[in-house]
Design a protein that fits this description.
The two termini are 39 Å apart. The chain has a seven-stranded mixed β-sheet with strand order 3-9-10-16-13-12-11. Strands 20-19-21-22-23 form a five-stranded mixed β-sheet, sandwiched between helices. Strands 5-4-6 form a three-stranded antiparallel β-sheet. The radius of gyration is 26 Å and the shape is globular. It folds into three domains: 258 residues, Bira Bifunctional Protein, Domain 2 (BirA Bifunctional Protein, domain 2, 2-Layer Sandwich), CATH 3.30.930.10; 110 residues, no CATH class; 120 residues, 3-Layer(aba) Sandwich (Rossmann fold). With 515 residues, the chain is of the alpha+beta class. It contains 18 helices and 23 strands. Strand 14 and strand 15 form a beta hairpin. The structure holds glycyl-adenosine-5'-phosphate. The site of glycyl-adenosine-5'-phosphate has 19 residues, from strand 10, strand 13, strand 16 and helix 13.
Length: 515
């Protein structure tokens, strides 16, 4: 990461802690690597993201239902799903620092540095040429940018091929050829690359002899597959239809860093869409568009997203793409869309001996459905939203303010009620307004410090609206309402507050953009 990016990322992490969004887990014991707790504001933001996802999937689609399956599953599930044999990361140790790394991530980080150089060239040129700058043309004609891109692409292509062929010796050769040093010691003395399974094991049962080996689920998807027939039959579902769920997943990630980007305990929001075989291309394209639209509705900037089609396919997929987001450390996977064929249901059929088929009345035959899945990490989405929203602005008089420009529908607190002074009946009226707004909105009440400082506090929390109660409010039942981003203030009737604010901060305002 370039120094500027590192500094920005550090600010994001410390802001998340300072304002009650995210804390390192068990911090008083010095924390646990890659495990985090959500604080009083973080949990609200996280719930709002989950709510937006859930409503967009389950509430807006007649053909998608939701479930909540258990984290513990029969251990054979993971044999059938391929996770026991194939859910591995290629690892490499540095002989000097004794640190272990994901070999593919070392190479990808090397490529990110090349990409950062490209971005720097583009930044420079864009400043030089101003409005007449054509980024697309610059990328395809500037000799330096072209040569960086070619180098980055050829490295990624070779890495993809080596991983696909399970040619770990070539991954090692690539690291040697690129002379990638250990980020800790700077040494280029590496061991061979080896595979390492990412699932966490645990035990079920009281006695050592009879205890059963279990895994903590590494994805929520299998809870959906094993319930396919239960749901299809009890819900009398006709293909095509989807099953959605959100919940915790666990992976023994070796490269656990970049804050909540890669965690050991995290939450997924997954939807499996069951379809007739042969229609997977059509549904894969539909879900790609549909999911991108979901992201774009948040208005965080179209240029922040791109698709990255996989060269190396997971063991279950016949096509796969990532929606990548421009995080502070570059473009990285935010969501995966996978055409999973009938791999999972067929294997569960094989391992259980139970038929997991669908009778298609139109085709008058039984078959195992194909599946297109959409899978997004809730914590990763949190990081995308949070990091994109945090900004520092110079305002009137040359002072600066830190403002978290969260999409209003996701903001933890929708409105803060601030009595101008702590006397003359203003706190009483402010409390009354707050009580009325609470039926529909999350509110905060603050009477400490000068009103300007209170605005700053709410800006830093991402609160889209502040309502100030002053002496005039006592006479004419009006208040001022201040909008976070523009800082514009308007005088409005107290009676109109719920409607006025509610419309702008409701999840409905996002959902309406999807249909
Ligand atoms: N069921 C398919 C599946 O699990 P995946 O690409 O391994 O696919 C899907 O994971 C999404 O889950 C990723 O796009 C990412 O957002 C999130 N995710 C995966 N591993 C994660 C981790 N260690 N920490 C946080 N989020 C993670």
């Amino acid at each position: 990461m370039a120094q500027q990016q590192t500094d920005k990322f550090k600010k994001i992490i410390s802001h998340a802690k300072e304002y009650g969004f995210i804390f390192p887990s068990s911090e008083i014991y010095d924390g646990l690597s890659a495990v985090y707790d959500y604080g009083q504001n973080g949990v609200l933001l996280k719930n709002n993201i989950r709510d937006y996802w859930w409503k967009s999937m389950v509430q807006l689609h007649d053909d998608i239902v939701g479930i909540d399956s258990a984290i513990f599953m029969h251990p054979t599930t993971w044999k059938a799903s391929g996770h026991v044999d194939a859910f591995n990361d290629p690892l490499i140790d540095n002989k000097v620092s004794k640190k272990r790394y994901r070999a593919d991530v070392l190479v990808e980080d090397y490529v990110s540095k090349i990409e950062a150089k490209i971005e720097k060239e583009i930044d420079k040129a864009s400043k030089r040429y101003g409005d007449s700058f054509d980024e697309k043309q610059f990328r395809s004609t500037n000799p330096r940018v072209k040569s960086y891109s070619e180098k980055a692409n050829s490295i990624l292509k070779r890495l993809g091929k080596s991983l696909e062929d399970e040619n770990l010796a070539d991954v090692k050769a690539l690291i040697d050829e690129l002379e990638i040093p250990c980020p800790e010691s700077g040494s280029k003395d590496w061991t061979d690359v080896k595979q390492f399974n990412l699932m966490f094991g645990t035990k079920l049962g009281a006695s050592v002899d009879t205890a059963m080996d279990l895994y903590l689920r590494p994805e929520t998807a299998q809870g959906i597959f094993v319930n396919f027939l239960n749901i299809q039959k009890t819900g009398r579902m006709k293909l095509p239809f989807g099953i959605a769920q959100t919940g915790k997943a666990f992976r023994n990630e070796i490269v656990a860093r970049q804050f909540i980007f890669r965690m050991r305990e995290f939450e997924q929001m997954e939807m499996q869409f069951f379809i007739p075989p042969g229609t997977q291309k059509e549904w894969y394209d539909k879900w790609k568009n549909n999911r991108l639209k979901w992201h774009l509705a948040l208005d965080m900037g179209k240029e922040k997203y791109r698709f990255h089609d996989h060269e190396k396919l997971a063991h279950y997929a016949d096509a796969a793409t990532d929606i990548e987001f421009r995080f502070p450390f570059g473009f990285k996977e935010l969501e995966g869309i996978h055409s999973r064929t009938d791999f999972d249901l067929s294997n569960h059929e094989k391992y259980t001996g139970k038929k997991l088929q669908y009778f298609d009345p139109e085709q008058n035959k039984n078959y195992i459905p194909y599946v297109v899945e959409t899978s997004i990490g809730l914590d990763r989405m949190f990081l995308a939203v949070f990091s994109n929203s945090l900004s520092e602005e110079i305002i009137e008089g040359g002072t600066s303010r830190i403002v978290l420009k969260l999409p209003p529908a996701l903001a933890p607190i929708k409105v803060a009620i601030l009595p101008l002074v702590k006397k003359d009946g203003l706190p009483e009226l402010a409390h009354k307004i707050s009580r009325n707004l609470k039926w529909d909105l999350t509110t905060a009440y603050d009477e400490k410090d000068a009103v300007g400082r209170r605005y700053r506090r709410q800006d830093a929390l991402g609160t889209p609206y502040c309502v100030t109660v002053d002496h005039q409010s006592l006479n004419d039942k009006t208040v001022t309402i201040r909008e976070r981003d523009s800082m514009n203030q308007e005088r409005v009737s107290i009676d109109n507050l719920t409607e006025l604010i509610g419309k702008k901060v409701s999840v409905k305002s996002l959902l309406e953009k999807l249909v």
